[in-house]
Amino acid sequence: MRDYFKTTPTATGEFGEFGGSYIPASLQEEMDKITEAYYSISKSHAFISELRSIRKHFQGRPTPVYFCQRLSDVVGGRIYLKREDLNHTGAHKLNHCMGEALLAKQMGKKRLIAETGAGQHGVALATAAAYFGLECEIHMGEVDIAKEHPNVVRMKILGAEVVPVTHGLKTLKEAVDSAFESYLRDPIHTIYCIGSVVGPHPFPMMVRDFQRVIGIEAREQFLEMTGELPDNVVACVGGGSNAIGMFSAFLEDESCSIYGVEPAGRSYETGDHACTMKFGQPGVIHGFKCQLLQDESGEPAAVYSVASGLDYPGIGPEHCLLAAQGRVTYTDANDAESIDAFYKLSRMEGIIPALESAHAVAYAIRLAREKPRQSILVNLSGRGDKDIDFIVDQYGLPDAKEG
After folding, report:
1. Fold exhibited by the domain 16-56+93-204
2. CA 213 vs CA 54, 189, 219, 346: distances in Å
3. Where are the domains of the chain?
4. Which of the following is catalytic: 45, 57, 68, 149?
5. Is the bond into 24 cis (omega within 30 degrees of 0)?
6. Catalytic residue among 57, 92, 121, 136
7. What is the C-alpha separation between 333 and 228, in angstroms, rounded?
8. What residue ranges in 97-159 does DSSP mark as E strands?
9. Is the link from the previous residue into 62 a cis peptide, with omega within 30 of 0?
10. Cβ-based neighbour number of residue 50 at 10 Å
11. Contact in structure between 176 and 286 (CB atoms under 8 Å)
12. Annotation marks residue 189 as catalytic
């Protein structure tokens, strides 16, 4: 995988057979301008210096790597966490939001627009908009607004307009649809800051590049802590931004096994899941080609996950390429495993994870039991403050003696 990041994606945004740009010609003109601006502005010394300063003095980077001693003692293995929950706003999303907002400012844009599921991307973009003095509009499904109420309040406090999405399943896919429609009404003064490594070119590439800071830091930190690379690297995958950020630094390290963890939800049999890699077929959604969960008519299927940030019927095109190449193994964790992992990490390590991140922790626990002598580095992509009311309402609190 030598020179991987210089050759992937292609100039037109393909990751093998996936990716690309499937959008109207009028919108393609705007995407071409964003692509050109990204290559010309974001590679400049001034842009890079400002972004590095923001990451250090505003975001609080680098985030640490932490060894879970008590959890490891109980379940086996040696489980480490890359603490993106300690990034400002509580998740990895600010890594690309500050980059996208800085690019928008340099391009003379006045307004940032985006979708959000769990609310972390919405909070991060509202934060970036406040930092740069830009307007901000966030589209969010009504179901997710109810589940993630604390993040909705945070977005409004930060000055964002939160647009409830009331059609369809009222979750992440519909929020993307709504945000795209709003963006099409004024692409000249607005930039759509996509919340993951999805969408038409250049967004899968651009978001990946801004998120690579996670893996770069984690690889260096793990080597410093242990003197070797991790045996296994694990991250949850919805669209896949936190995962691609983590995986990027280890792709050339053949000794590292890499796992992307999708949401198995309640059941494969009933379709209450979002396991895109296991059950998807090539298809187009939101302007790009990927493995896609589809209904009988070929339309994006209804999906489900207890984690609002993972219930998306598609997946980033780069993940599709890495799966096809066999470099990354895509697996899953269900709701019950993830809730159990949520409480285990909270009770044993004093770290309350986001429900999305709990899927990665759940798989790491399973892996630790299977490979008790190996190290496992998990990207803890976000903190669980946003989820605690929902979890207690739906699942209650376990007995105080339970781990």
Report:
1. Rossmann fold (3.40.50)
2. 13, 29, 10, 26
3. 16-56+93-204, 60-90+212-395
4. 68
5. no
6. 92
7. 28
8. 111-116, 135-141
9. yes
10. 15
11. yes
12. no
> What is the reported pLDDT for 400?
65
Note the maximum CA span of the chain.
60
Distances (CA, A) of 84 to 65, 125, 362: 9, 16, 17
Per the CB < 8 A criterion, the answer to whether 390 and 257 are in contact is no
**Whole-angstrom Cα distance, residue 79 to residue 71?**
8
Is 68 one of the catalytic residues?
yes
pLDDT in tens, 304-344: 999 999 999 999 999 999 999 999 999 999 999 999 999 99
Of 3.40.50.360, 3.10.20.310, 3.40.50.1100, 3.40.50.300, which CATH number belongs to 60-90+212-395?
3.40.50.1100
Lay out the sheet containing 190-192: strands in order across: 161-165, 135-141, 111-116, 190-192
How many residues does this entry show for the chain? 403
One pLDDT digit (tens) per residue for the chain, 403 residues: 678 999 999 999 999 999 999 998 888 998 999 999 999 998 899 999 999 999 999 999 999 999 999 999 999 999 999 999 999 999 999 999 999 999 999 999 999 999 998 899 999 999 999 999 999 999 999 999 998 899 999 999 999 999 999 998 888 889 989 998 999 899 999 999 998 999 999 999 999 999 999 999 999 999 999 999 999 999 999 999 999 999 999 999 999 999 999 999 999 989 999 999 999 999 999 999 999 999 999 999 999 999 999 999 999 999 999 999 999 999 999 999 999 999 999 999 999 999 999 999 999 999 999 999 999 999 999 999 999 999 999 999 887 655 5
The string of DSSP codes covering 178-191 is HHHHHHHH-TTTEE
> Which of 88, 116, 112 minimizes the C-alpha distance to 102?
112
Report strand pairing: 161-165 vs 135-141.
Answer: parallel
Specify the 3-state DSSP secondary structure of 268. Answer: coil
